[in-house]
Amino acid sequence: GQSLEQPSEVTAVEGAIVQINCTYQTSGFYGLSWYQQHDGGAPTFLSYNALDGLEETGRFSSFLSRSDSYGYLLLQELQMKDSASYFCAALYNFNKFYFGSGTKLNVKP
Amino acid sequence: GAVVSQHPSRVICKSGTSVKIECRSLDFQATTMFWYRQFPKKSLMLMATSNEGSKATYEQGVEKDKFLINHASLTLSTLTVTSAHPEDSSFYICSAWDATSSYNEQFFGPGTRLTVL
Prior knowledge:
The structure holds two protein chains of two kinds.
Chain A: E1 9-13, E2 18-23, E3 29-37, E4 44-49, E5 53-57, E6 60-65, E7 70-75, E8 84-92, E9 96-99, E10 103-108
Chain B: E1 4-7, E2 10-13, E3 19-25, E4 32-38, E5 44-51, E6 57-58, E7 67-73, E8 76-81, E9 90-97, E10 106-108, E11 112-116
Parallel strand pairs in B: 2-11
Antiparallel strand pairs in B: 1-3, 3-8, 4-5, 4-9, 5-6, 7-8, 9-10, 9-11
């Protein structure tokens, strides 16, 4: 499958802003999603970008640059409950998704 | 969002037995369901793509005779781990994909934790 790269771990304090980057392979790429997963739970959908630019949904925003094969998830006004793993997932050939390696976000008081 | 159920949530079995995991989309018709495997603190590894009424498409390295997938209806897909061995112990998660949505959102089941003794 296709490989997507993310930082393994990020630590930030409450109220701060964090950016989690994701690079992907371009062959067959259609769009980039972001998911949040708490320990022991199922992934939950956060956002999706098919076009270049920024998509904003409340405290979370996601960005895509197709020319750079790169996207990021921006989390603002961090809260303790945001501590979780975040995965980018790329849709390929409009028929399957491959997930990134995951970024563990630690939010500290 | 849509609801996807997965059953059982946890199963412990003896080596050599087979285990069936069910994945149901409760409030929408999913033409495509995906099966993933996740090891502790690792990413979700796509095992196979399951399309209603047709044979599943397996990822490279996934044994189709080991992991039998059936997608009999638009709301049900099953994964059977045949002749399970301890190395098959893992967290298995299904998702239902709404390809008609502009967000191409996947709705995940709660997962099944399989432990093979």
